[in-house]
Specification:
The structure is a homodimer of 432-residue chains. With 432 residues, chain A is an alpha/beta fold. Chain A folds into 3 domains: 173 residues, MoaB/Mog-like domain (Molybdenum Cofactor Biosythetic Enzyme, Chain A), CATH 3.40.980; 78 residues, Alpha-Beta Plaits; 168 residues, Alpha-Beta Complex (Maf protein), CATH 3.90.950.20. Chain A has 14 helices and 18 strands. Chains A and B meet through α2, β2, α3, α7 and β10 of A and α1, α2, β2, α3 and α10 of B.
């Protein structure tokens, strides 16, 4: 069963209101095995809405329309649906009574304008609204079943749960048609580009495959999305598990977690599991790494704390970077980040320390060290000694992107180190 | 001029990713006097995308398509556009060279898969991408001008600003077509709720007014939005300026800046203007405040650095909080945040220091100090001495929200202090 979602409203097409209804509806439908193939948002214009209904009804089994059921002149969904169905609007006496009852409860007479909310296209059915005055509608156009709900999220959600979902389930039962189950899963990676990930996945990304495997990028993180569509929930679950295992085996340690897991979640989980602690010494990332780590609930078990050594005096006085190291190599250097990490581990008593120093821009770049040049340091304990190492990342993007990628690179390097994996899996860093 | 926006991607129709591109685009277009009449989102299916292009191009002058330009097999927008235009895909040698140059800069060979990104429908033009490998496209289909941009917000926004908007302006000039001018402006506040702001604004919020004044809330920040629609640009600009001045006079120091100004931008600007410096000592915010401050370009002129004193030993050893203070009052107390701020200012030599200690949750709450209890400290120099003060914020929401609001409260308190304004304008803090 394929669904299309249609939202009505000037405020939505003008970008003044972000439409949260469609994502909510799409997820509810997927959970019932119905998948959305299109969302459409149309302004408050009767012809445009009618045209959208006519076009979309041809390409789906289920069309859910939200919005445009209010009592004011710019609410035109009823009229547009009647136009698309080529029928007249008729008044529903039961709905008039229900709307009057709502106003009576509020101690007021029903405004004449609200009478329009009891109108519906001939041949359609009205759906009660438990939270407002606008009844919903159910109609048929060609092979498509159409539901119309109010656009107010609270009213829409209540109506979908109370009336639309039970009817869809009932309908699936009566037709002897057991809804197909769609399950989705996501595997997150960091440190390599989308095309490299795709190359590693190879045939797994064929568009004919079920489960279907795709990739998306967000803030440098490449996520592999898996979608399985099967008759039974157990088949779908098995298929998802098997495909995820195949993806994991192709990606190795680049993949750090499923679904909403962030790189810092993976790092904190590893540290807690190993009963190890971490400190940070940040220059160009300016507290971002510490903030990412402490954003994880329970991170206090692993995070001791850290330093933001933005000024050079903070580097020398607070984490004991020798001043001559800065003079000789510059603050943005492998030598300085190693000294920062060593100072942080020594002063904090932590088991590991990560450090950063770079040029986040927009100013401060030089031919030698252009904007995007970031040194990343790592320190750890070995026997009684402190060992340090450093990597150079050359990053692109604006200041926020460079800081974000630098932070994630440092966390992925630490994670790979903790796992005993090769750190050069992170393709954005080199030995300098 | 009427526009339609078309987004491509399974993750969007399935509700796994919320589409923020369309609202951004719709607002940019409105600012240029171009109205959006429809948004459409289609899954990764070549026929469906081609059909959407064919249908929408018939009903608009401008069609902007985002997404599906990546190098992988599920990126099908180029093919779909060629199908809708009934032409072949051809390779663009200049784009191949540009993509190869990006990979060369990264010290790697171009993966063969990225070659697909240099393909474009015959008769279309390529638009350079300043932030990624996928060039955009410009084509004509009937009366509609079509632009295709990557779906990654950063790449899309850069391409629209650098290439699409200048072309659209040029085009409007050449046609001698003057549209009605719509100008918008935004004034940002922090420290008080939306209903309080609305009460202060009073009649300015009447729906019949032009410019229209409204409020929106995002991450605790209440923004006042002003929208003026006039025949001439100068009328609109004058009207906006006058309304903004009225809003500012009603809100006083609660308002910290216009449009995209964040609270940290306002704080850094003030510090730089006064040639003053700041240090941070953070417990529950864990580096977030330092990260917010150093996210501002040029912040190194004002930010010396800071400490993340997550463990109590970091508080005592690194910013000199007397251990007995923690024993007596607990780490989450006015006494401890004052000692943290004093230690930070003393050790760093900064002119000001801000500090935080609180219960961000989800665990760690007690009847006395429930989740959301956050103490905020401030230290400054007076004569030769260091003076400190502390406020108690009681915040709601999840861990991320509590940390975010605590950081913004601390920055607004510092800003009001710097301006000599009463700090109790921040209604979410008390003397404890």
């Amino acid at each position: 069963m394929q669904a299309i979602l249609l939202s009505i409203g000037d405020e939505l097409v003008l970008g003044q209101t972000v439409d949260t209804n469609t994502a909510w509806l799409a997820q509810r439908l997927i959970a019932m095995g119905i998948h959305c193939i299109e969302h459409r948002t149309v302004h408050d214009d009767q012809d445009a809405v009618a045209r959208a209904i006519t076009q979309t009804a041809k390409h789906c089994d289920l069309l859910i329309i939200t919005g445009g059921l209010g009592p004011t002149d710019d609410d035109l969904t009823r009229q547009a649906l009647a136009q698309a169905m080529d029928v007249e609007l008729v008044e529903d006496p039961k709905s008039i009574a229900a709307i009057e009852a709502i106003f009576k409860k509020l101690g007021r007479a029903m405004p004449e304008q609200n009478r329009s909310q009891a109108m519906h296209p001939a041949g359609s059915a009205m759906i009660p609204n438990s939270c407002g005055t606008a009844p919903g509608l159910r109609a048929q156009l060609g092979q498509a079943t159409i539901y119309v709900t109010p656009g107010v999220p609270r009213e829409m959600e209540a109506m979908v749960k109370a009336s639309v979902e039970p009817e869809l389930r009932q309908c699936a039962c009566e037709s002897g048609h057991t809804a197909r189950t769609i399950l989705t899963a996501k595997l997150n990676t960091f440190g390599s580009g989308e095309s490299d990930i795709a190359q590693r996945l190879g045939d797994l990304m064929s568009r004919e495959r079920n489960p279907l495997v795709g990739t998306t990028v967000s803030a440098g993180q490449v996520s592999v999305r898996v979608r399985a569509e099967y008759e039974s929930a157990s088949e779908a679950a098995d298929a998802i598990a098997q495909t995820i295992a195949e993806v994991e085996s192709k990606l190795g340690a680049l993949a750090f977690g499923r679904d909403e897991t962030a790189i810092q979640d993976a790092v904190i989980a590893l540290l807690v599991k190993e009963k190890k602690t971490i400190a940070t010494a940040e220059s160009c990332t300016g507290g971002l790494i510490a903030s990412m780590l402490t954003d994880v609930p329970g991170s206090s078990a692993a995070v001791v704390g850290g330093w933001v050594t933005y000024a050079n005096a903070m580097k020398t006085d607070q984490v004991d970077v020798p001043p001559q190291l800065i003079q000789q190599h510059g603050a943005v250097s492998g030598q300085v980040v190693q000294a920062m990490a060593a100072g942080a581990i020594e002063r904090s008593g932590a088991d590991f320390a990560i450090s950063t120093s770079g040029v986040a821009g927009p100013g401060g770049g030089t031919p030698d060290k252009p904007v995007g040049t970031v040194w990343l340091g790592l320190a750890w304990r070995q026997g009684g000694a402190i060992v340090t190492d450093a990597w150079l990342a050359r990053l692109t993007g604006n200041r926020a992107a460079i800081r974000d990628r630098a932070g994630k690179c440092a966390l992925q390097l630490l994670r790979l180190h903790l796992m005993g994996q090769p750190l050069d899996l992170v393709r954005w860093v080199s030995r300098g």
